[in-house]
Predict the structure.
Amino acid sequence: MTTRETRRWVVPKGNPIKGLGPYEAAAHEAFEEAGVSGIMCPAPLGAFDYLKRKRDGTLRRATVTLYPLAVTDQSQDWPESDERETRWFGLTEAAALVEEPELKRLIAGFRAPSPIAGRLQRLSAWTRTKSGEKIAMLRWFQALMPKQGRFFELFEEHAATLVAGADALARLLQGGPSLPEHVRTIYDREHDADDITRTVLQDVRRILITPFDRAAISGLIASMDDAIDQMNGTAKAITLYELTEFEPQMRDMSGIIVEAARVLVETIPLLRSIGDNSSRILELTARLVEIEGTADDIHDSGLKALFKASQGSDPMGFIVGREIYGHLERIVDRFEDVANEIQGLVLDHA
């Protein structure tokens, strides 16, 4: 969006707001200035400095902390819609438009989840990128070895189920009338993930030569599958206890989960060339470990608030809430397990 006076391109930002956490203030400013709302991740992406012009014309250095927001809605009208121009850009173009060097780097380094494609569409798109000679060789090889495993494609498909499951879980924890729809989405994606996992494990047993050793492949797909299983377990618990309202810290943890899935879906394709991508892979897995720590803090503060609110009046509410918090914490823990598996691959094969 543009600034009010100079009309240069910036991202939504503003001053701290009393009574709101930093990421909550960021979400507030995103709606005030650009009309967007959605699922905010409490773990920051990074920060940048810029010179802010005060009302008296003087300049002062300000530091802006950026938070990822998974946008679910953009209003047709919002408080500053008449004062700014708002437009969506691709990452490369957006990075070129802003002036601050560190903001350029943060935007250029961000990756949005890819659209979810089916197995046939993904394989077809991959095949079309090859030269004619390589396509002919590929077809010959596939005819000779029709059961050859496609570990990279299957890892990427599984990562896509995690993105879809995380998105549905975050929407589920917003409450509202669409809860059964979101529960069904998580259930369906968990079944898709099970099918992919089963295929990977069958190929591991059948194929003699693999991109990584058998234990590494099995460990990676198992840790990814544990994450979607925990999402499904959370949805089942919510359905069992007929919950329709959720604590703010639960929603915050769902934002962490959405961010973890986004980071993972960027990381998995880089495994096709571990040596060339080792630095970026380690940077992304470090992000997964970092946000797991943030989730632990949110879990502890949420559980403490729930205990105080339930003390003496609603013990059953505390027991149920503690179970939901436990499920959410385990989801984030499983993403950290995935990060550890990938870091092990980098150490072994880079």
